[in-house]
Amino acid sequence: MAIRPIIETPDPLLRQISSPVAEVTEEIRMLVDDMLETMYAAPGIGLAAIQVGVPKRVLVIDLQEPEEEGGEPVRDPLVFINPEILRASDVLQVYNEGCLSVPEMYAEVERPDSIRARWLDRDGKAHEKDLDGLLAICLQHEMDHLEGVLFIDHLSRLKRDMILKKLAKWRKERSKLAA
Ligand code: NI
User: What pTM was computed for the model?
Assistant: First the structure.
């Protein structure tokens, strides 16, 4: 396993549409394992393959929810290959989203509260499930990446420009610290 570099906006690769995985091979499993390691190291709760520069429909998510409230985070890696949304609720929920490709920036995004999704796991086994809460939000955010969409695209132009300005400022400060 290896940590791969995460690409950040405005890298044009992030705008690419990812292709379906024809077969879950050993190469795909290696990609999945690297993505999990990269996500945990970042740290983040979700990562799409395109964020490490691979335009394939592969996502990893781990909400690392503690078993009890206020407890230690527990690892529960989830792998979504060729995910599809079959149904989405009319009821929406708002969540303050962030993204490893838009570092340190957060904004409220509205998405369907619950979805029915279908996907393959790391072994190529098919799953179909109703998902809600943070997992539904996170899966929709990661699936956007497969279409070249970032969470900031859901915001008004004004809000998006504000975030991109803040990001530029943050990068300047980061490079000053590194110098
Ligand atoms: Ni993201």
Answer: 0.95
